[in-house]
């Protein structure tokens, strides 16, 4: 098969024509993983020498993105095995539509390294069609049809029809060497793709709360993932900066600081300022009337009002920035106000296409399959959150030319986004088969009492207070371990920040984002279990092995080129395979945007490393003198490879490991 660079379509020739009825299943050497295949359609090709034509979108996703494999990139072993088994299944049972394809890594060595469990499910499918074949028989036939390949040493059929796969040691060892030589490299993207991630997005004049903290942490990690994979990433802060609250804020500002145009008013506490203005708004009819006038003037962009609005936004912006600095977040502010002019055009477009209904003075849009309409114009003529999101999605599709758009907010907004996406499709802005638009929702943050996260006095927790408490607690922990006695003051502060912010991020990321999660400093700072504290310690320990044995950088670098990574010991073998599962994990989290899988993997890698280190000497020392007597270079390389993958994992999670802890 050849992957053409054609813009329009990917040309595929199928020499053996084992095309299944619904098209696009068999792809010669490149068999595409099954879940994706359901979305495919293919048609007969008019080009000579080429039998089938596949949509370029599909070609992009499979061959150009995921299948492209240069020698210096890490191989996704699981995916490669899926290709091989997919081919075997299609040759063995060419008539079977969408045969179930499952290949998983094996935890227990006695069952081989990977396992293909398709035979059982295939037997079910065939039974439903009236063909009675035992899974074992199917497994045998699959095994007989496994094509020649580079990585399978042998297979065996176990139990009712599991196919256990044993990998070639030499092959795995070569992959590890190549990882050490080339570094941890993602598969290369032939066509650069663009991702917009809308995250963090707090509201001006209001406190940034724990929900925004989650969005910030999760969104940043998604950005880092796509950046690592080579996408162009646009990180957008869709701040709430255009609501009606600005009317009363500006009216109050005019009264309290009449010379605000020449002297910057000292509003340190915007919350208090907000409360004062709200009180007046509720009690004073005259003030209320003026506040509404202010909104109109602001939205028609009168300079003095824009100036007042900017002053207020700046106060919030500075507060938000403090949080971003702690957490090392880069983000571009593009609030609701950015879309003001586009909103007007969007309303017109919906009206012209006859998609708008009037409802008690409001303009609403019903999207197919959605019971709740979008309100695009309020009865007072103002625009809404819905209007700004419609304008924003249009801008991201047509002006930003995004291939993927992700919104990271709490799951409470799921319906809002569902309706916005449906309306955008209704008006024809995008086809979900071509552009991936997704709401990545998350659960609420709970306190240790399992109730909504609050301070003791019942107020919402200020994020800066929370981060500061994290810093204090992490310093206590480091002192408890006596780290203040061995680290320089500078290194101690570095460790303090790495632990505090690393733990807060990791605690969030290591839980399935869909679920609610309980915020507990005690748990996140515990250095046992699946926590950042544990992983950071494990990482510094691995990094220090070479240093403590006095092995120079240069020596290690030469070893990488000259020493084979032998995997004779059972624990070396286990660790080697674990290291190489990294691309498989990245693939999964790119598909489902569930980052906890990466955390689980890093934890597994750290514990697998510990198992290895406990039973395999890397450095032998003289018991009496403590002098190094022997260095096992090949094991040192396994340490290096583990550290390299862990470092990349931390990078994606936005966690900053320190050399000394
Ligand atoms: N400002 C909103 C909030 O605090 C979140 C905005 C999310 N992004 C969007 N495009 N709607 O709930």
Automatic annotation (TrEMBL):
Domain DALR anticodon binding span(s) in chain numbering: 535-661
Superkingdom, taxonomy of origin: Eukaryota
Gene3D superfamilies linked: Arginyl tRNA synthetase N-terminal domain (3.30.1360.70), HUPs (3.40.50.620), Isoleucyl-tRNA Synthetase, Domain 1 (1.10.730.10)
E.C. numbers: 6.1.1.19
One cellular component (GO) term of this entry: aminoacyl-tRNA synthetase multienzyme complex
Subcellular localization(s) per the UniProt record: Cytoplasm, Cytosol
HAMAP family in UniProt: Arg_tRNA_synth
Catalytic activity: tRNA(Arg) + L-arginine + ATP = L-arginyl-tRNA(Arg) + AMP + diphosphate
Protein name: Arginine--tRNA ligase, cytoplasmic
Enzyme class: ligase
GO BP term, example: arginyl-tRNA aminoacylation
GO molecular function: arginine-tRNA ligase activity; ATP binding
Native species: Cyprinus carpio carpio
Pfam families: Arg_tRNA_synt_N (PF03485), DALR_1 (PF05746), tRNA-synt_1d (PF00750)
Family that this chain belongs to: Belongs to the class-I aminoacyl-tRNA synthetase family.
Domain Arginyl tRNA synthetase N-terminal: start-end pairs: 79-167
Keywords: Aminoacyl-tRNA synthetase, ATP-binding, Cytoplasm, Ligase, Nucleotide-binding, Protein biosynthesis
